[in-house]
Structure formats: structure tokens, C-alpha cells
Amino acid sequence: MAxxxxxxHCTSSLLGKKYVLKxxxxxxxxxxxxxxxxxCEACKEPIESDxxxxxxxxxxxxxxxxxxxxxxxxxxxxxxxxKDERLLCTECYSNECSSKCFHCKRxxxxxxxxxxxxGNYxxxxxxVCEYCRQxxxxxxxxxxxxxxxxxxxxxxxxxxxxxxxxxxxxxGGVTFRDQLWHKECxxxxxxxxxxxxxxxxxxxxxxxxxxxxxxxxxxxxxxxxKPISGLKGAKFICFQDRQWHSECFNCGKCSISLVGxxxxxxxxxxxxxxxxxxxxSDI
Length: 283
Fold this sequence. Notes:
This protein has 283 residues and is an alpha+beta fold. It has five helices and 24 strands. It has helices spanning 29-36, 90-97, 151-157, 210-216, 273-276, and strands at residues 19-22, 25-28, 38-39, 46-47, 53-56, 59-62, 80-83, 86-89, 114-117, 120-123, 141-144, 147-150, 160-161, 168-169, 174-176, 179-181, 200-203, 206-209, 219-220, 227-228, 236-239, 242-245, 263-266, 269-272.
């Protein structure tokens, strides 16, 4: 029968021997190692009672096995990080997982400040204006193919100015008569409607939306009295001081098209040769 000085499992006497307590029960070293030792994540061998057991997130290692999985340097009493269940020293973790600076291509070490722009990363000291070489930080910037610029340097080197508001055009814009406008500044000279996405006409070097141009300047068809814009290659007929849409240039009696055909006139009417025969007419 086991006594308080016997191994809880094999009942051998522990007097004068090394033993280990587990849940207040004594075990000889052999039984303890067999039933209670944790297994090392690296070598898969038991971590016996005479070895130091290093634990991290319910995982265990021998002291000699607790190493970086990439460079194999010991992690005992050294900082480390975990990635995908692997333990890495800070240098290997930085090289594998940290961002690379878009300018100098070196690792941006954890804890150091980094700048992000258009999906790329910079050291704070590398994220500088291409012209004055001063750090941009969180100040406004303008990006070109040649690099990033602080606003004062961009205006000094590259800026073009709007013909209407005289302010800098930083991107996009509309060109008309070899001059530039902000999209929001390129307006109809009549009703002030934005024209950047609209068809427009010009008169005396001023842009007009179609409604204003037709109302103010377009000739009117002698048949339908609607404006003749001439947009998109639309054809029209001129005779003396009158104009017609090509689809409106028809005989006043039989309505046959007179485009490309001979015709006769009488007063303000036009007729095909057949209908106009016998009438007093002008050529």
C-alpha cells in the first residue's frame, strides 16, 4: 500500500530520492516524465523534469530548441514575433513581414513611423518633395510621374492656371482655344451651365451650350423653323438668304425630297420641276 513517501503511480519509495509533486501528489522522476511531460514543438521529444520548459501560447519547447525558425538563433531572453505558428527573431520577422520603403527599398522596422501613399510605403525621412527634398509628412501633395511634390514646389515648377478663375489646375482640366479651364469653370457663356460633359458650340471665341447657341445664334429652317446647328455632320441646304434641314428641303406640293434635285421657286415656296411646271417661277 502506497504511503505519503511513495510514488503515486509505481508506489516505489521516494525516501532519499528526487521526486516531483503534481496536484500535491509525489511522483518519481521516471513516472512523472512518462505521464506528465510536455512535448517539444521543435524536436517532438518530451521535456523531462530536469530540463527547462519554455512555454508560449500553450506550446512548449526545450530551452535549446527555442530558436528562430528562419535563422535558428536562440530566442531565449530575446524579443521575437509569431507568424503562421512560426517563431521569428525581430530581424527575420522584419525582413519577411514588414513593409519595404518605396524609395530606399530597405525594411521599415516595426515601431518606426511610415508613410503610405497610393498603396506604397516610405520611411518618413524618405517621403520627400522631389524638388525641395523636404519631408512631406501629412501636408498636401501633388503626384506626377516624376515623383511627389509639395504644393508650393508643384505650383512653382509645373502649374498651369485656369483661364477663368486664374487659380492653379492641379489635375485634369479642359482645353479650349489653346487655353485651359478647370472642369468646373468651363461654363456656357449664356446660362453658366457646366460644359465639360456636354456638346457645345462657340461664337466669337466664347463657348455656348446647344440650347443657348441655338436660341441666340443658330439659323432657322425655312420649313420647320427649328434651329440648324450643323452638329455631328448634319447637312443643311442654303438658297439665297434661306436655310433648310436636308430632311426639310421638300417640294411644297408633293413633299418629295429636293436634295440633289432641280427645283423651282414661287414667292417663298419651293417645288419640284413637275409640280412647278406651268407656274410663274424664279430659277
